[in-house]
Amino acid sequence: MRHRWLVLLVACLGSGLVVMGLSAENAEVVIVEYRVPSEYPPGELGEIIKLGREIVEKTNEHPLSKAYVGNALTCSSCHLKAGTVPHTASFLGTATAYPAWAPREKRVITLEDRVLNCFMRSQNGVRPPNGSKVSTVITAYITWLSTGSPIKMNHARSLGPNHVKPLKIKPEQADAKRGAILYATQCADCHGKAGEGTPEGPPVWGNQSYNDGAGLSHNDKLAAWLKVAMPLDEANLSEQESLDIAAYVNSHPRPHFVLKEHLPKPERLGVYNW
Residue 242's domain spans which residues? Predict the structure, then answer.
């Protein structure tokens, strides 16, 4: 019977299902299914959600968002396929976790806060105003990807139910020299020999990549993401390989994060109308 439950759990995780709990007698399995909704809402709301996905995929180029982006990354650079891939920084079910406690900010934040903070850190840009069109459409899109999922606000961290899980390996075991060799054979074709990016993949260091205030600037977080996401569509790195590549990538220069440089002018911190 135990083996049967193990097989069920593995199958569920592989298909975007998460087992939430078992009764004491294993008589009942409560399963939450996270999947992209089959259709958009009608009317203007549906159009706003479609626009949100478009901006997620073209953040650094779209007229509504490019002014707030300071590098060559899009939201989809980290949240693959517009956040629809389970377990690779997926947006599926994410909205159910908010409002959530954020240890970095030391306060409870909304989903909109989380989205806007990414503009400052991962995209090395300026935080769009709260309530602005760009923040509204992205948040609407991410919320739509939680359609039908039960709310379970996160009291520990501002992460959704499909967040990237940490590796078991300790960050101190990283070897950037090994990572350099792995990068050359596994990553350079898509991200460039000098980390400058190519049409196939975004920059991973330098002025056009994320700054040192982004989560991925920490080796353990980048390594956990690499383990489940890279190479694209055929992730096959071991934990040690992921950690070594992360250490090599993050050993290179990138913009330094200074909070005041990424905030809008005081009169633009929030807007009422678009």
Answer: 172-249
